[in-house]
Structures are given as C-alpha cells and as structure tokens.
Amino acid sequence: xxxxxxxxxxxxxxxxxxxxxxxxxxxxxxxxxxxxxxxxxxxxxxxxxxxxxxxxxxxxxxxxxxxxxxxxxxxxxxxxxxxxxxxxxxxxxxxxxxxxxxxxxxxxxxxxxxxxxxxxxxxxxxxxxxxxxxxxxxxxxxxxxxxxxxxxxxxxxxxxxxxxxxxxxxxxx
Length: 173
Description:
Elements: H1 9-29, H2 33-41, H3 68-82, H4 87-98, H5 113-140, H6 146-153, H7 157-172
Helix pairs in contact: 2-3
C-alpha cells in the first residue's frame, strides 16, 4: 500500500501558476467585443461560406463552428485594436489585404451607393408599371353585352334575335 503525501507549497504554487497561465491563454483566444463588432462588418474569406467573420459557423458536416480563417481575421482585428487603430483604419487594412469584397455590406459611398439605391428605384418603377397597366386595362375594358359581342363577331342583330327565339322555343318543350 502506498502512502499519500500531502502536496507541498512549491507544488501548489506551480499548479496555481499553470492554471492561471491556462486561463489567460484561453481568455486571449476569445476576441474582444470591439473585434467582434469589426468582424460583423467583414466577411470570412475562407471561400466556403459567405458569413461575417464574427458569426462564421460552417453548419453541417463534421465541422460546426468558426473556421480557422474567421479566427485568424478576428485575431488580426484584435492586433489592430491593440495598436490603437480606429475601426475605419482596421476596415481599410482588410480592404487592402482582401479587396472590397471583404465588406459584408457595400459602403454607402461611391459606386457602392448604387447597391443601396437600386432596390428603392426598382420598387417605385415596378409600382408605376403596375398602376399604368391596370389603368390601361380598366380604360379598354367595357362591359360586354350580348349585342356588343355579336357585333364584334360579325353577327347581325336579326340573326341574334332568330337564334334567341329558336332557343326559347326548344327549351319550352
């Protein structure tokens, strides 16, 4: 039978130091709130998803969670934050590295402003076309009577009266 020895003070100190180091390293892997806010504005550039880097989740399959590219991009954002850069400077650094497709939504300036304006233009133009077409239909359509239909088909009113009289006689029997 083996004897259990009490842990010494130096061993306790070593365990405490290792635990605090482990907790610190785990905390360092989690991006800050500001890095996550920037990560929402940039796309994960892994090439397999079209999600924001802060919410990349690769659903399905054996892998479900942020991919390595998204983690790396959030880490880059955290490094820029540590340097004291503004959000705009950080976004510009990502644009320089990946191009303008890194944005999750196009900026509201320059040519990208077209992407923000066109949906409203399409809505108003579409509504105008619908109103125009309905107005033309209403103007063209007049109540259809038997006489006007017969006249449109080239049937004389006398022929129409004879046909009505014949139908009336045949249905009375």
